Amino acid sequence: MATTDAPVELKSPASIAKFAGLLALVALPLFVSEYQVSTWSTYLAFALLALSIDLVWGYTGLLTLGHAAFFGAGAYVAAKLLKEVPAVPDVAVVFLVAPALAALLTLGLGWFLFSADVKGSYFAITTLIVSIIFESVAGEFVGFLGGFNGIYGIPSIQVVGFELTATMSYYLALGVLVGSYLLLRLLVDSAFGRVLRGIRGNQERTEFFGYDTQQYRLIVFTLSGAMAGVAGSMYATMDGFVSPPLLGFVLSTQVVIWIAVGGRGTLIGAVFGALLIQYLNSTLSDVLINYWEMGLALLFIAVVIGAPQGIVGLLSDTVEGIRTNLESTNRSDLRAGGEADD
Amino acid sequence: MISTLATVVPLQLADRVLISLTSISGLILVASGLTIIFGLMGVLNLAHGALMMVGAYTAYAVQSAGFSPWLGIVIAPLVVGVVGVAMEVTLIRRLYDRPLDTLLATWGVAIVLQEAVTIAFGTSQKSVSPPLEGSVSILGVTYPAHWAFIIVVTVVVMAITIGLFAYTDIGIMALAVIQDREMAAAVGINTRVSDRTTFGFGSALAGLSGAIMAPLLSVNSTMGIAWLADSFLVVIVGGVGTFTGTIAGGILLGGLDNLFRTVISGYTSIAQAAVLLVALIIIRYRPQGLVPAAERGE
User: Fold this and answer.
1) Of all residues in chain B, what percent carry a pLDDT higher than 70?
2) Which residues of A touch B94 (CB under 8 A)?
3) Residue A171 pLDDT more than 70?
4) B101 vs A305: CB contact, 8 Å cut-off?
5) How distant is the Cα of A109 from the closest Cα of chain B, in angstroms?
6) Residue B42 to residue B103: CA distance in whole angstroms
7) What are the residue ranges of helices labelled H in A55-165?
8) Of A221-230, A246-255, A295-304, B260-269, which range is least confident?
9) Phi and psi for B266 in degrees, rounded to 5?
10) What letter would DSSP give residue A266?
11) Which of A116, A155, B19, B153 has its CA at 20 to 30 Å from residue A188's CA atom?
12) What residues pair up with A242 in beta bridges, in sequence order?
């Protein structure tokens, strides 16, 4: 794919599009209400979750249908600690405790599954079950976790006694998202990333080359879990409310749909799909109600069958097509000595 | 699973046994269609729960149009069978060699069916009345007739299905196609028709199970999700690709569900989570399931 293999060149259409998108996100708080800014902050948190799933699914070929469990675990631990244990600094809770807990969970589950080489559809189904277990257990702890009503009134992050405003939280989330994107970009373009793609393409062959794929899968799953944990804890501080569906597999599958439509295995597709579909969700679901969900599901089916590279992949293919077309015409122009206009 | 059962009837031993039998039967009945579609054909059909849900709504629609509940039980498998054939023709056929994409596309189908049902019937919960009212006396216990009927239907359906795949030409040809597509085609079997029929039959079973279980459940568009996970677990834990496996898986998971519910009474979700955890551990340590299928020539 052009976006992954080409060296970074600022003039390429892909990087111009990315830069424009980033500028739009930076400028967004200037044009919308404060309420919408906090809504967009939660979109950014979910985009980070999408990024973490794309690393595992898009690059390593492990379809996880249970990542909401780790997102939700991060959200719940942040909710409990921020509300009830003010002694711990908020920043430490959101960026240290939550990801550490989520990473521990993914490390444990990853070891449990990868050591028996659970992969493919069984990996999808077992992660899905984990998500269902988390959701039903959280719903049952009425006293400790608020049961089905969840926990509300979670304060936003305080830095040295100063509470972040909605706009500041937004820029914090944007910064974390962009930082995570750049980090993962480096990772997937490195030798490590090539091994991940090797596992996706053919795990056995990668093992024959001497790579300990179990270890690679474990590292990548744990890293992705930590990112999902940060996404969850940021979400809790920005939305102020957590409840069992945040852990459930319906959320996991929703995010998988965003990634598929945006373009799996491209990182930017996950972010693009997550932001686009969440935005359309909020604007169109009032007007079209169930027809919107249905249309989205139909689009998802079409993408899965006909265009696994998603919107981003289709766009970059089109741009690439036009480009090579132009280049070849230019070349034939030269060769034909300017007579190509006939 | 069937959470309403545990509370309605006073808990005597004979009652407990009968209730367990009904809930185990229900589980096996709902999973039977998936045994064919996932177990035999290897298609990861995440729309299975939604197909069951469509069966339940068909039963509701037939009843609310003023017809007998029996007609609903007859029509539901036909309607859902047609939906299944349509799925096979438009989607599944293109994805036989892409299992994870099948899983995703069928989840898309599940959402489409859910939304279609919501558009057609609204969001309110529906209740479906059973074809058999009243109660029967078994083991000295007065037991709701429909609950006993579920046990009987499950036994009959499993017997017919096993017989179909073991003794009839259609069933044997379907197995031949599943085991070795090229060889089956070479000996003159129309593999495409066979795939379509098998998938349609599995879907019809899902529809039947929905219509039969509907009176015990609150019928709504998302009712299939819990049954989807349960069905997959029954099929995998039992042993993918065998009907006896599904029966064993249903007995184990349904039995554990009833046991945990009794032991940790008051915490139904914890009991359910415990069953899922056991299933997870079985999948991890015994991926071939309780009753492994004989080696297949793949």
Assistant:
1) 95
2) 305
3) yes
4) yes
5) 11
6) 11
7) 67-84, 90-92, 98-114, 120-140, 142-145
8) B260-269
9) 95, -20
10) S
11) A116
12) A151
What is the value of pTM for the model shown? 0.88
**A59 belongs to a structural domain:** yes
Query: Does residue A7 have a pLDDT over 50?
Result: no
- Give me A51's structure tokens: 């990024």
- The whole-angstrom distance between B35's CA and the closest CA on chain A is 16
Domain assignment of residue B119, given as a range: 15-124+141-221
Of A116, A256, A290, the CB nearest to B115: A290
Indicate the DSSP class of residue B219: B
Give the CATH number, domain containing residue A78: 1.10.3470
Q: Which residues of chain A make contact with B267, given a CB cutoff of 8 A?
A: 140
Q: How far apart are CA B132 and CA B146, in angstroms?
A: 5
Helix axes B224-238, B268-285, angle to 10 degrees: 40
Residue where the block lists tokens 């675990």: A73
| Domains identified in chain B, total number | 1
Q: Which amino acid is at A233?
A: S
B129 in a domain, yes or no? no
DSSP state of A1: -
Supply angle C-alpha A192, A129, A201, rounded to 5. Answer: 30
pLDDT for the residue A10: 55
Predicted ipTM?
0.88
Q: Kind of pairing, strands A151-152 and A241-242?
A: antiparallel
Question: Across the interface, do B112 and A294 touch by the CB < 8 Å criterion?
Answer: yes
Alpha carbon distance B241, B289 (integer Å):
10
Could you tell me if residue B90 is inside a domain? yes
B112 to chain A, closest Cα gap in Å:
5
**Residue B187's pLDDT band (cuts 50, 70, 90):** confident
CA angle A180, A181, A184 (to 5 degrees): 85
Whether A231 and A179 have beta carbons less than 8 Å apart is answered as no
- E strands, B82-214, are 135-138, 141-144
Q: Roughly what angle, to the nearest 10 degrees, separates helices A34-54 and A249-262?
A: 80
A58-93 pLDDT per residue, tens: 999 999 999 999 999 999 999 989 888 877 788 888
Contact A1, A266 (CB under 8 A): yes
Q: Which residues of A touch B47 (CB under 8 A)?
A: none
**Contact yes or no for B258/B16 (Cβ under 8 A):** yes
| Structural domain contains residue A175 | yes
- State whether B115 and A130 contact (CB < 8 Å): no
In the predicted model, what is the mean pLDDT of chain A? 86
**Tokens (6 digits) for B241:** 């690709």
Residues of B with CB under 8 A from a CB of A: 44, 91, 94-95, 99-101, 103-105, 107-109, 111-112, 115-116, 118-119, 225, 229, 232-233, 236, 267, 269-270, 272-273, 276-277, 279-280, 283-285, 287
- Terminal Cα distance for chain A, rounded: 34
| pLDDT (mean) for B138-167 | 91
Asked if A124 lies within 8 A of B267 by C-beta distance, the reply is no
| Number of domains, chain A | 1
Alpha-carbon distances, residue A192 vs A38, A54, A58, B119, B247 (angstroms): 36, 16, 15, 48, 45
All residues of chain B having their beta carbon less than 8 Å from the beta carbon of residue A273 are none
